[in-house]
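So, can you check this record?

>
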Amino acid sequence: MKFNTLFVAAICAGSLMTSCVHDTAKENQLKFTHTSLVDGDAFAYIQTVGETALDGVKYAEYAEKSGDAKAVEIASQVKAFYTQLLPELDSLSTVNNVDFPIKGIPQGHGESDTTATVDSTAQVAHQHFDYVHHAQHEISVVKDKLKRMTRNTNQDVQNFGKKQLVLASELYTQIGGKEEAHGHH
């Protein structure tokens, strides 16, 4: 009788000790609560940059089909930037348990719904879409988020932000964006 009681007590104690291991608790927290390993700012920046990049690829593909030589050139540069950014962003997201790719991103001009009826004014606006201006604005938003990522507390996020900020700044000037003068107060 004592042997059975000691055996059951040992099993209970063993299972209690293994369930309290820090790594197991951390893994279960991440698995069951959808928590990430980055702070809220980095989470939001990763989501914003990821959404902009995924949507930006679709816009670039649309602009490449437009026939405008300047838009096609800029679209290929923007698409190349986003193509190299997305795998690194995916790796950063995986390491830090951030959900990526983002589900439900807006589909922009990359895909068109053939079943929808579109009036003539919407078609005219669609044909006169200024991709160059749109790409400059899009890259400036990405630059701002990457600049903020360089000041994050997570070292991986900082390194990603620094590396990609240099590339985004170069692209921004190549596509005609004007770098702002650094004003100190």
